[in-house]
Amino acid sequence: MTIAAVVPVWNGREWLERMLASLARQTQPATELIVVDNGSTDGAPELAAARGARVIAMGFNAGFAAAVNRGIRESRSARERSCDSIAVLNSDVELAPDYLEKLVAADAWFATGKLLTPSTDRIDGTFDATCRGGTTWRAGSGREDAPIFDQRRAIASAPFTAALFRAELFERVGLLDERFESYLEDVDFGLRCTSCGLEGVYEPAAIAWHKGSATLGRWHSATVRRIARNQIYLLARHYPTPLLGRWFRPILAAQLLWGGVALRHGAGLAWLRGAMQGLVGARGVRKGGARMNEKVLRRLMQSNESDIRRIQEVTGHDAYWKWYFRLAGGA
Q1: Is residue 164 domain-resident?
Q2: Residue 62: closest CA among 165, 161, 185
Q3: Can you tell me the distance from the alpha carbon of 41 to that of 39, in angstroms, rounded to the nearest whole number?
Q4: DSSP code of 122?
Q5: Which of 114, 147, 223, 242 is deepest in the core (most CB within 10 A)?
Q6: Residue 46 lies in a domain
Q7: Per-residue DSSP letter, 292
Q8: What is the pLDDT of residues 2-59, one digit of tens each?
Q9: Number of domains, the chain
C-alpha cells in the first residue's frame, strides 16, 4: 500500500509540527509527504522541509481547494499512477498512530475517522450530512463522545480534514472545485461521488484530534462569507430545477436560520455579503454542470435528514435543527 499525504498549510507552525510528528508515528506510513504552502509567514513551510516534506509554494493564499488539488497533481506517485491512496490532512490535525492503518483497512473509495477536539471528549466531526435546504452538519460536532458515534457505517461525504481516498477516485470524480476556495468544497465532492454511485466509510476506530478553525476562527467574517456563498453554490450546482421549486420552503428556512446564527455571533453582515456573492455567482456555477439525478438526490437528502434527526434525538437538539425541521415541512 502506497499513500501520498497532502497537507495544505497557511501559517499555524505549532499545529503543523504536531501533525507532522503524528504522521511520522503512523503504523501505516505515508510513502510521500507533500506540504502545499498558501503563503505562510510564520516559518511553517521551512519546518515542513526540515521534516522531510516536499514543499510546494503557492505564493499566496489560494484557498484550501486549490492547495489540495495542487498537492494531488504534483504528487510523484500520482504522476506515475502508482499511488494506491491519497491522504488529505489539515495542518491542525493530530493522528493516533494507527489512524491511516484503520482507514486503509476500511477498504472503501474514501474513509474518515472520529475527530475529537483536543484535550476533550467532544466530537469535532465524523461525517457530513447536508439537508434539503443546502446547509451541512458535521455530524456530532460539539457533542460529547457517545456510543452512537462508535458505529461504523457507509457515508456519502467525508470531511477533507483527515481522510483517505483511493487515487482512482479523483480520476473518476475530478478534483475539488476551486470556486469554493475553502469550506464545503468537500461536501461538493461528496455530492459528486454520490452522483457516480461511489460511497465511503466512517471508521470510528480511527481517532484523530482536530483544533478546528485554527487560522481564522469559526465566526471570522471571511469564514462566514465563504460558507454563506458556498451553500448557495451547492444548491446551484447540484439541485435539479424541479427540486429548487419543490424544496423552496426548506431552502429558505435553512438559509435564513443560518443567517440568524451568523447574526447572533456578530457576523450578520458577512453572511449577507456571502449570500449575495452566492446569488450573483450561482448562474456561472450552474452553467454547464450536470445536476444530480432527482431520485438520487431525494434519496440522499431523506437519508441525511434521518441521520441528523436520529443523532439530535440521542445527543440533544440544537436550536438550529429544531427550528429547521419545524419550518421545512415534509419532503
Answers
A1: no
A2: 185
A3: 7
A4: B
A5: 114
A6: no
A7: P
A8: 999 999 999 989 999 999 999 999 999 999 999 999 999 998 999 999 999 999 999 8
A9: 1
